[in-house]
């Protein structure tokens, strides 16, 4: 079952994915530990990790900035729509010194709208995810204003998230129809203001069409507006509006004014407003089932760390109990030199010799593991090898953290018996943190009998014979 997530959560996780693919992976030990502590599905843990990194890297401010730029871009487009709508209305009516050509006025006010609306309908029903219209203009304007790398990543993540959820078309459609609705409101208000302040004479003009054709056009265009209360001029009024009959047409100005307003409302504003509502409803429905595509590059690599098989992280448990007990694969052979064993050093500094003298013959040396990528690679290697014994060494001078303990639990799933070797440099034979390591490892579910404070302690507890006995390191 797919886990529905909030749009902002998915957008944030996608932004972090794009940023890390472009700039390299971020250090996230603490964030991964917190995500594991919260539990949930892989997608929910990805979101928890992204939220933690966003707080640390101050990426939240990028989202605030991007939204502000988006609002600014829409405001600019809305102002342009107001000026355009008012300008078209004023141009359609003129200054009152000449009769208003009804056909040209309708073409001026509804022509471009009709063409773009038809194109939008075709694009909406098409299978292609390509979107066009004023929504694309808004997206381009916002991207142009957001020039920082993090803002660019946020914009790319927005588009990618919407495309995968099939939400790009309805969102850009909302913006497109909202701008057109604003333009028609401005045009209607301008028409009302001019018609209230001036006397206009309306007429039909033609060279090719028969005069009675305009009576049919008037009835057809006036049919839909009449359903919401706008009048339809009678045929006699239409005939009086023809060129040459203007003196008789002066008194018909009010009915033609209402008819023209009704045509603009019914065929201009109402379709745009209904399309806006349809886009809003479609957007909301698709966002209810929004989730992450966890198979994408940048996400799938995190699965071994965020979904280790050994973890059972109940979200209602207190923090110390979030560690589950590592699964033991059953009894295994005693650890002997040359057996099917492996050794690995986890973030071990150079002042600690690796491997310690005498341990090189105990099994396969997998080397030092320092980066996140190396951790992922190690887990993959261990899963395929299934060693009898795995000895993981750590720096005893460091304070044990949840991320390291959780990684140890993941390592414990790859072998029959897991051992932890706490090492110190020759110049520091004692350190009180070794006790802390032992306590935390036992609390995390590891058998204290397989936690060693140096090679000599390993030899004493296991009874193995090392090739070159050496003191504690």
From TrEMBL:
Keyword annotations: Membrane, Transmembrane, Transmembrane helix
Protein name: DUF2868 domain-containing protein
Sections of the chain in a coiled coil: none
Signal peptide start and end residues: none
Superkingdom to which the source organism belongs: Bacteria
Transmembrane segments: 72-94, 100-122, 172-195, 259-283
